[in-house]
Amino acid sequence: MRRAYSVETVRAAEAALMKRVPEGALMQRAAAGLAAACGDLLRRTGRVYGSRVLLLVGSGDNGGDALYAGARLARRGAGVRALLLSPDRAHAGGLAALLAAGGQVADGPDDIGGAPDLVVDGITGIGGRGGLRDDAVALLRAVLRDRDRTPVVAVDLPSGVEADSGEVHGEAVHADATVTFGTYKPGLLIDPAAEHAGALRLVDIGLGPELPEPPDLEALQYADVAALLPVPGAGSDKYSRGVVGVVAGSERYPGAAVLAVAGALRGGAGAVRYVGPGADAVIARFPETLVHAGPPSKAGRVQAWVLGPGLGDGRWAEEAAADVLAADVPVLVDADGLRLLEPDTVRTRTAATVLTPHAGEAAALLGVAREEVEAGRLAAVRELAARYRATVLLKGSTTLVAEARDTPVRVNPTGTGWLATAGSGDVLSGLTGSLLAAGLAPRDAASVGAYLHGLAARHGSDGGPLSAQDVADGIPAAWRDVRAG
């Protein structure tokens, strides 16, 4: 599991560790890891010896890390030059080490000695706020002008992004890879900042024992998901596997019902009960579905409900929503169902509620602009979870799952742009609903659902465009992948 901690927590852990190790040891550990990562990148397209490396050096510890790493690369035969944004405030020890190893300090962008094979971003660190300053932007543009293919490695965090929130205010470095130290930072895992980070490499500097529980953010990996998957045993029946009810679709959007049911069936439900106007379309595609004219409370036993995809906003939809929300089983609310919610109704439910908005729906629930949600995804998902006292799965380029309780926010690592297709969210709703019905806790059901959904898209797309039905059809293969590790 990838775990991420806030800047405040990281700094407290570093301070505690520095009391137990020799002075400068943490920076040397970080520099060693950074130099190794840079060496790996250089060897992919050539070799370290004779390569040209340019360091962009700010005044903080990240600049020191870059300088010490540059010294190590220079001792291996690389031609290393440093551009100092604040020459009088550069890390003295790091600068001395670079010069002693044969590195040089450039007088400006025109003195970098030819096109570099690698650029190391050590401009700002995890404490940076508000994007890059104008002088840093001008320097970056001058260095990378007409050199779009020059790889950039960020030190700890791409300069200009917000470490704690993943927000990007103004200009920021776009790195091909980020080498981070001790632990991940939330901004490395959450868009829009994550889009600036490139491939991530974590360097162990001994910080682990100093980091508290729980982390601020976590991302499940294969083994974590495999441990949560509900796998039937020899004595299982449809009820022990989970029966999920689906209230979705309308005369205008019958396909939403079909896709939600597809996600539920592919997600391992023992049975699916469908209530809504799309019964004919559902039965035509999935004859095993148990259909009912309604109301939902009369449809038969279920262990979780999925409410909302394509439901519309007529009287029938309102009555069905009220009926489902009154049930004493977990309820997942998506799409049109979100517009029918009253916060007090959700807060006072005795069973769990999972909300699955995209950015536009989250903005409507919070009463803010969509752009505000997209720019501050972590703050938005936390606020929604607290306001509704629910588990919230915020869909998007990085899907986030938050609870009202003080548990780490989870970020899904399997998302892909191919999921931005009509009906994909309906499949996710059915899939997650089936996991709720199987007995997974709401946070686990949402996290595993998002993880499988992303993997399913990769199977369904085969690297190209896909439909929502392709996503549903890819779920069994995603399930097998996870179990196989």
TrEMBL record:
(6S)-NADPHX binds at residues 61-65, 125-131, 156, 256, 310, 358, 426. It comes from Streptomyces cavourensis. InterPro entries: CARKD (IPR000631), Nnr (IPR030677), Ribokinase-like (IPR029056), YjeF_N_dom (IPR004443), YjeF_N_dom_sf (IPR036652). AMP binds at K395, G396, S397, T398, T399, G425. It catalyses: (6R)-NADPHX = (6S)-NADPHX; (6R)-NADHX = (6S)-NADHX; (6S)-NADPHX + ADP = AMP + phosphate + NADPH + H(+); (6S)-NADHX + ADP = AMP + phosphate + NADH + H(+). It holds the Pfam family Carb_kinase. K(+) binds at N62, D121, S159. This is Bifunctional NAD(P)H-hydrate repair enzyme. One of its GO terms (biological process) is metabolite repair. Residues 221-482 form the YjeF C-terminal domain. Keywords: ATP-binding, Isomerase, Lyase, Metal-binding, Multifunctional enzyme, NAD, NADP, Nucleotide-binding, Potassium. Its EC number is 4.2.1.136, 5.1.99.6. Its cofactor is K(+); Mg(2+). In the N-terminal section; belongs to the NnrE/AIBP family. In the C-terminal section; belongs to the NnrD/CARKD family. SUPFAM superfamilies: Ribokinase-like, YjeF N-terminal domain-like. Binds 1 potassium ion per subunit. The keyword Isomerase applies. Homotetramer. Residues 10-213 form the YjeF N-terminal domain. Bifunctional enzyme that catalyzes the epimerization of the S- and R-forms of NAD(P)HX and the dehydration of the S-form of NAD(P)HX at the expense of ADP, which is converted to AMP. This allows the repair of both epimers of NAD(P)HX, a damaged form of NAD(P)H that is a result of enzymatic or heat-dependent hydration. GO terms for molecular function: ADP-dependent NAD(P)H-hydrate dehydratase activity; ATP binding; metal ion binding; NAD(P)HX epimerase activity. The keyword RNA-binding does not apply.
